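thread: overnight batch results

M.L. [08:02]
morning all. the overnight job finished for the chain we discussed friday. pasting input first so we're all looking at the same thing
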Amino acid sequence: MAVPFNCKLKLLKERVYFFVVFGMLIPGRVLSQCIGVDFTAPTTMACAPAMLNFNAVGVPVGTTFIWKFGASTISGSDTISYIFTKKGLYTVEMEATIPSMGTCVVTKSAYVNIHLPDTPNLVVDKPKLCNGSDSVLLRNTKQGFNRIDWIVEAQNLQNKGDSLRYLFFIPGVKHIGVKVYDAFGCPFLKMFDSAVVVNYVPSITINSSKTQGCKPIISNFSLSTNQPSRQIVSYSWQFPGATPSTATGANPQNITFMTSGSYNVTVTIKMSDSCVYTKMQTFSIYAEDTTKPNFVLYDSVNCAGKLTTLINTSTSPVGAGASFFWSFTGGGGNLIVATDTTKKKDTVDVYFYTADIYSVRLDSYKNGCFLSTTKLHNAIEVNNGYSSPDNVSCVVPDTVHLINTSTITPNKIFKWLLKDSKGNLIDSSNNQLSAEFIIKNPGFYTVNLVTDIPGKCRHTEKSD
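M.L. [08:03]
and the structure it wrote out:
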């Protein structure tokens, strides 16, 4: 009897081997054990993924089964389900082991045909939008599909072909779905995550720490945006007319403006998503002229107690509308200011009574700008004096000795003057530290000790 080639016998009862020879099973007494053994499937062609059912027929109760689907082997029963996830032709084999009889093998080559479209390939002409809403071309470059649907922003755009131009309005990360169908109508959906990123132009505000005040205006800059979640990775600043004129970094420091005017400050920022934005903002800078006040200090070295004159020589533009204030330190407060010290161009007369080095300062105040100039004045203590051990004589001629008790100061010059009772000068030739005069005629005489620091201080000590 002819037996189908897909049915062959293994070891049967009585341990006799049987083989298929030219389509005939020998010996014939075992053939009856596999006659009618087979399996069937309601469906043998499907779209992946597909779960197909297989049913064994012609086998007695108690039979055990091993099923093979391509390279997969599964132990099961007379009914089994198997999921096919990949496309292709699959050979299905059933091994049915009949108790006390043997094993029947049924093999069906290319029995199952599973269809699945190829994976589409997405190309986006503008995957990153930096300036808000824009039209983007989406293209599938894989050929051979009967139909293509597009899934964009939760919209199922059916049968739109290989390309789709889509206008994005809403910022964010866009996932694009491409659903393709093959000739058998089998679908396959491929999601392309983060295929398009839509960014809106951030609102940028440039901030300056100072725009008005005393010249020069020294300001620090920073910026703020309405999109703080987007990371800025680089900054490029331009400050035309200022010093320095360029800067990098988030917060440029000590940008100096020397004159009043309008200045265009520009910053270019690069985001971590590679988007680049530029902002130009105009600042009105008001720099109050800050020419320092000045004054003339006559006799920067003078005798203590002598009148010293100070003259305010400040000129425009600081002088216009500015208020001035004099102040003095040193000498324990022993000085008298003889005139009003708050008026511009005033001449100020000051008596420095105590020997000391005084600090003289002239302050100016205008529109919030406070400036000052300081000079030093040296008030010298004269402290002149002398004595004589023999200023009374009973006979003439007689020599009178004069001992100088004055404070010795560098560059101090001494000069002795001898005068008669009428004030007539008798002798002025002595300029030694101490002196002696020869009195030739009886009478009363006056001696003047004159001390002089040239150009600074002159004092006369008189004694009869």
